[in-house]
């Protein structure tokens, strides 16, 4: 490739176009294989995912001369006057750098990733020898007052840990090897760098949030624990992880102050979601028609959104809907991802037709998910009368504040554990480290005498590595966007506000043309700040 300065733009454009022509079909086929496995659990789709994962990696790694040319182009990108093309070069570099793996490791990495994806999709914990789906386990943890039943459900949710641990640790080792070959400390450091996130700045922000939330969370947790102890008929000192409302204490326990599930028990969640997005001028019917929304055997029990092909409108959501508040939130959340992908700038080239960053698409998902207990949404969309809304609004607001603090403290567990995992996956005390962090950040007492790889029960460590900080950044961004909507739209709200939809479409339409913080500044007026999240959820009500 001729990289003389006078020929650089045209040569770069041709080079990028040739690579995209190979990347696009490989990515599309891999995304389809992931969808097919998630929706069927069939062995042939697991095999296809492994094969296509390896094929996609080889597109990015098979030609050392091509990788060298990308590095040279990236190093000289300042000479490219076309800002869009220069950004394409930056994103091409991060895509290829993220995928660089020794040729002899490609097939093994693909096999491990496909095998773990299959395991998390198809594994069912057992109680008394009977397989139990995650939705049922979660329902027990949310609703049962029987400590023994709760313990059985919690332990069943962790049974996947020993099954996932060997493959997950091998995967961590291989990821580290690929990162160190490129000169990074480990895969964690590599991933942050390629996500355009400064590690020192990130952990300074997280440390600040931890300090700001420590005492407010401690005070809230005392109240939660008192309510849980009374509800489950146990002394405070005997509260253990199974007394909380999900397997990881990442959601706020239900204390009975507001029957939020009851608000959705007889509701059509799809109709409510469609009405929500109609109110801000965003269409979701086509997405819903392509999606897989209800639970069944052999289907992935989690929820996600996928964009099968960036240059098409083939956006799909997977859920396992039940008529309760959790799944209302989840459906709105996943459709938040979906509208972002749907309304990406139609004229953007392939490499730029994606979200500005992982944390910006998470922000939209979180912004939408928060509506499920928003008083205006409950009145306008759910259709509750004023007295009913007034009766649940204060309790719902309290639960939302608790939920945000609970999730933030849980997120700190994940971020710190994953960083330590990649720093030394062979350390013998990983099981104990997990519970050390749980006790430190979540203030939950570990089960007596337990020494199991409970950390390996968390799917993100295997198939969404070095991702969890983006949930935290997404919550901060969601609060910042919420304040921008309040300040910049005539209605001053998200619900039933076409102007809010216009503001969001401005964000979506930018795609990845700018680094994520510059995109946020363009839309909200400033770069990311924690102050809006702190004002919303940390300061005392």
Describe the protein.
The protein is mainly α and 541 residues long. The protein is 64% helix and 3% strand. It has 22 helices and four strands. The protein has helices at residues 8-40, 43-61, 64-75, 83-99, 103-122, 134-143, 147-157, 160-181, 187-194, 199-232, 269-278, 285-290, 325-342, 358-369, 375-380, 386-423, 430-442, 460-463, 468-488, 498-510, 516-524, 531-538; strands spanning 125-127, 130-132, 304-307, 315-318. It has a two-stranded antiparallel ribbon with strand order 1-2. Strand 1 and strand 2 form a beta hairpin. The chain is globular and about 75 Å long.
Offer a concise description of the structure.
The chain has about 550 residues and is mostly helical. The protein is built from 22 helices and four strands.
List the keywords.
disordered N terminus, 3% strand, single chain, two-stranded antiparallel sheet, 22 helices, 541 residues, two-stranded antiparallel ribbon, 4 strands, 64% helix
């Amino acid at each position: 490739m001729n990289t003389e300065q006078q020929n650089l733009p045209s040569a770069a454009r041709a080079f990028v176009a040739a690579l995209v022509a190979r990347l696009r079909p490989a990515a599309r086929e891999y995304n389809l294989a992931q969808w097919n496995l998630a929706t069927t659990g069939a062995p042939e789709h697991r095999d296809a995912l492994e094969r296509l994962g390896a094929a996609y990696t080889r597109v990015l790694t098979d030609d050392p001369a091509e990788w060298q040319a990308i590095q040279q182009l990236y190093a000289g990108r300042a000479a490219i006057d076309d800002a869009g093309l220069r950004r394409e070069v930056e994103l091409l570099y991060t895509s290829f750098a993220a995928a660089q793996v020794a040729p002899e490791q490609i097939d093994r990495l693909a096999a491990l990733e496909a095998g773990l994806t299959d395991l998390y999709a198809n594994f069912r914990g057992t109680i008394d020898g009977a397989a139990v789906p995650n939705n049922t386990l979660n329902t027990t943890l949310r609703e049962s007052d029987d400590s023994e039943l709760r313990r059985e459900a919690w332990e069943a949710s962790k049974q996947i840990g020993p099954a996932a641990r060997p493959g997950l640790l091998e995967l961590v080792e291989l990821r580290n090897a690929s990162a160190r070959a490129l000169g990074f400390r480990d895969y964690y450091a590599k991933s942050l760098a390629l996500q355009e996130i400064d590690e020192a700045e990130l952990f300074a922000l997280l440390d600040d949030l931890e300090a700001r939330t420590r005492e407010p969370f401690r005070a809230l947790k005392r109240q939660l624990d008192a309510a849980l102890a009374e509800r489950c008929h146990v002394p405070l000192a005997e509260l253990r992880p199974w007394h909380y409302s999900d397997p990881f204490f990442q959601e706020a326990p239900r204390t009975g102050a507001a029957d939020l599930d009851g608000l959705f028990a007889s509701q059509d969640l799809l109709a409510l979601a469609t009405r929500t997005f109609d109110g801000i001028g965003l269409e979701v019917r086509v997405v819903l028609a392509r999606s897989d929304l209800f639970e069944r055997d052999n289907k992935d029990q989690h929820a996600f959104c996928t964009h099968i092909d960036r240059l098409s409108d083939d956006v799909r959501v997977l859920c396992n809907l039940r008529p309760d508040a959790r799944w209302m939130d989840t459906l709105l959340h996943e459709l938040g991802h979906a509208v972002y992908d749907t309304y990406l700038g139609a004229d953007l080239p392939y490499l730029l037709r994606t979200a500005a960053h992982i944390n910006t698409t998470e922000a939209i998902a979180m912004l939408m998910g928060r509506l499920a207990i928003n008083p205006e949404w409950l009145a306008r969309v759910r259709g509750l009368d004023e007295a009913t809304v007034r009766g649940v609004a204060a309790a719902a607001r309290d639960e939302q504040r608790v939920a945000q603090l609970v999730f933030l403290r849980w997120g700190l567990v994940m971020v710190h554990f994953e960083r330590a995992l990649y720093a030394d996956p062979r350390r013998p005390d990983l099981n104990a480290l997990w519970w050390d962090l749980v006790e430190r950040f979540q203030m939950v007492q570990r089960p007596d005498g337990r020494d199991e790889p409970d950390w390996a029960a968390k799917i993100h460590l295997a198939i969404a590595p070095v991702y969890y900080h983006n949930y935290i950044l997404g919550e901060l961004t969601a609060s910042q966007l919420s304040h921008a909507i309040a300040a910049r739209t005539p209605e001053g709200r998200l619900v039933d506000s076409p102007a809010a939809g216009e503001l969001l479409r401005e964000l979506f339409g930018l795609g990845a043309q700018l680094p994520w913080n510059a995109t946020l500044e363009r839309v909200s007026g400033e770069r990311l700040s924690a102050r809006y999240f702190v004002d919303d959820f940390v300061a005392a009500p």
